[in-house]
């Protein structure tokens, strides 16, 4: 069995394991380990397993060791800790509180506030799933109590939660930057305008929905005093966003330094406002350690799998096939979009990224395209996959935390937002300047 055949069988095995909900790290590392062993054991034309043990173990352990000791990966625990500490300090939800008070009297105002709150939460936590889970517990019950259409109440949180993929800091951007060896700071900045464009599109969908069906979103009331109080209470979240984005853009901090400074600031603010205690702080640290360990395992397994793919020669073969087909830029992007949308229906974002990047990056480089821009396109596609049936992870998260609204109703509401998401995607593809304007001006 040649290396290419082993690679194809391995890819099929990974897809089956991921579809069966085997943990990503185990699926990737297990298949890559077995595949690497088979390649070395059959390389001389016969079956020589004794010659495969040393090179296989070298590939497995050296790749994992190199990745875990990567400087760029050190920002992952910092941003994870930032999100958890800010959550327990009550910082991540204050933008929603302020927006809900200020927009309550507008048609669909609380739903718009939910999307804005998700954007603010995402700008600190960097996790779409955590955003959908937390904001689902806070926003959906309030909207249902006010008499909102359950489809609008739940779908606005599900789609708003996807903003965590684009608005910095984003775990997906960190992993993309590590595997493609591109600047994570530039990726963070490249996601700002696409994230804001996506946010604006979501708000337009809510306004259109309520204009067509005013009963879907009854109006509320708020006093001037409560508006001022809510706006002032949101200052820590604004400060953290300015420190992260402004510090990176201004060249004051690297992305890792910005994360470290933000963690210290968040901790000081939490204790100063007496929202953090030593017990609560330690709980946030424990959760951060657990989440970081999971991300490190996935990243290490992904690095092993990428090395295995390179060993099989599949990436070079795919590039050769595309070159022979002489696809235009438009056709190439259609193929990319279709692949990611189809995979997004069944797999989670990190799994999709790990499976596709070994093949996509050589293609993009072969066409002379910008890897920073392509990173934004990939993350936007993964963002869409979070709300695409039948396995939209954000939809299931919101359904689990609300329990009173069925998945079918949430998907029915989400479909109204998918059209605007696809429009934003087309704009990002046709006008790369949207993604590259801010990093290009550094």
From TrEMBL:
Q: Name one Pfam family in it.
A: DctM
Q: Which GO molecular function terms does the record list?
A: transmembrane transporter activity
Does Cell inner membrane show up as a keyword for this record?
yes
Its membrane topology is listed as: Multi-pass membrane protein
Q: What is its main location?
A: membrane
| The TRAP C4-dicarboxylate transport system permease DctM subunit domain, residue ranges | 12-433
Q: Where found, per UniProt?
A: Cell inner membrane
Q: Name one GO cellular component term.
A: plasma membrane
Q: List residues traversing the bilayer.
A: 75-96, 108-131, 152-178, 184-210, 230-249, 255-272, 293-323, 329-359, 417-438
Q: Which UniProt keywords apply?
A: Cell inner membrane, Cell membrane, Membrane, Transmembrane, Transmembrane helix, Transport
Q: How does it assemble?
A: The complex comprises the extracytoplasmic solute receptor protein and the two transmembrane proteins.
- Protein family: Belongs to the TRAP transporter large permease family.
The entry's function note states:
Part of the tripartite ATP-independent periplasmic (TRAP) transport system.
**Any idea what this protein is called?**
TRAP transporter large permease protein
Species of origin = Paracoccus liaowanqingii
């Amino acid at each position: 069995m040649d290396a290419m055949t082993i690679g194809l069988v391995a890819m099929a095995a990974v897809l089956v394991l991921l579809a069966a909900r085997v943990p990503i790290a185990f699926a990737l590392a297990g298949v890559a380990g077995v595949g690497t062993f088979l390649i070395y054991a059959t390389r001389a034309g016969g079956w020589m397993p004794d010659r495969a043990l040393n090179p296989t173990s070298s590939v497995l352990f050296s790749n994992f060791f190199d990745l875990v000791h990567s400087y760029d990966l050190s920002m992952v625990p910092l941003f994870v800790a930032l999100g958890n500490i800010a959550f327990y300090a009550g910082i991540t939800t204050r933008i929603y509180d302020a927006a809900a008070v200020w927009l309550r009297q507008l048609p669909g105002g609380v739903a718009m506030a939910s999307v804005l709150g998700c954007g603010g939460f995402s700008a600190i936590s960097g996790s779409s799933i955590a955003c959908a889970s937390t904001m689902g517990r806070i926003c959906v019950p309030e909207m249902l109590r006010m008499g909102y259409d359950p489809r609008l109440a739940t779908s606005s949180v599900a789609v708003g939660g996807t903003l965590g993929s684009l608005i910095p800091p984003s775990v997906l951007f960190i992993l993309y930057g590590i595997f493609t060896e591109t600047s994570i700071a530039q990726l963070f900045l490249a996601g700002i305008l696409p994230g804001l464009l996506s946010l604006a599109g979501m708000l337009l969908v809510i306004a259109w929905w309520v204009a067509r069906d005013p009963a879907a979103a009854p109006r509320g009331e708020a006093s001037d005093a409560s508006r001022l109080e809510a706006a002032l209470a949101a200052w820590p979240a604004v400060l953290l966003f300015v420190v992260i984005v402004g510090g990176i853009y201004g060249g004051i901090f690297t992305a890792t330094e910005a994360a470290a400074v933000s963690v210290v600031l968040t901790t000081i603010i939490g204790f100063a406002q007496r929202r953090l205690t030593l017990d609560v702080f330690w709980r946030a640290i424990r959760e951060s350690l657990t989440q970081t360990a999971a991300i490190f395992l996935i990243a290490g397994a992904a690095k092993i799998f990428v090395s295995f793919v390179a060993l099989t020669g599949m990436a070079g073969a795919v590039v050769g096939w595309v070159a022979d087909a002489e696809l235009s830029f438009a056709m190439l992007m259609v193929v990319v979009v279709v692949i990611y949308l189809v995979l997004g229906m069944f797999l989670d974002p990190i799994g999709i990224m790990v499976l596709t990047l070994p093949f996509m990056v050589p293609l993009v480089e072969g066409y002379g395209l910008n890897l920073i821009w392509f990173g934004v396109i990939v993350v936007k596609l993964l963002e869409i996959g979070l709300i695409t049936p039948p396995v939209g992870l954000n939809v299931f998260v919101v359904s689990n935390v609300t329990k009173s609204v069925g998945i079918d109703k949430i998907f029915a509401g989400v479909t109204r937002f998918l059209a605007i998401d696809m429009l934003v995607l087309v704009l990002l593809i046709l006008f790369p300047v949207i993604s590259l304007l801010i990093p290009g001006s550094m």
